[in-house]
Amino acid sequence: MVYIYTKYSAMARQSISLTQPNDEWLKLQVESNEYSSKSELVNDLIRQARKQQQQLDWLRLKLESAEKSGFTNDSKEDIKRASKGSLNG
Cα(59)–Cα(40) distance, rounded to whole angstroms? Predict the structure, then answer.
């Protein structure tokens, strides 16, 4: 018998309660082969929410920084271009 140990632990198991409409939606996503399981879908939704939260945190910091920095002579297009460049990179 061979035992393999990794430094990563197995996924945490959780028990959650869902409303009927949410459970039905999850089932439809799995049945339509969008996801292989409800767990995969829930993990994907959490990843998306975490990414969105990171983007909101970044934007909040940028807004706070902008409020503290005062006025600019940059055009609206320059500001938009710089912001998009920061978000993408």
Answer: 29
Query: Which H/E stretch holds residue 85?
Result: helix 76-88
Q: What pTM value is reported for the model?
A: 0.62
Task: State the Cα–Cα distance between residues 49 and 47, nearest whole angstrom.
Answer: 5
Q: Which residues, at least 6 apart from 82, have a Cβ–Cβ distance to it below 8 Å?
A: 74
Rounded distance, CA 22 to CA 38, Å?
11
Residue-wise pLDDT for 31-86, tens only, equals: 999 999 999 999 999 999 999 999 999 999 988 988 888 888 889 899 888 888 87
Give the pair of three-digit tokens for residue 46. Answer: 């959490």
DSSP state of 32: T
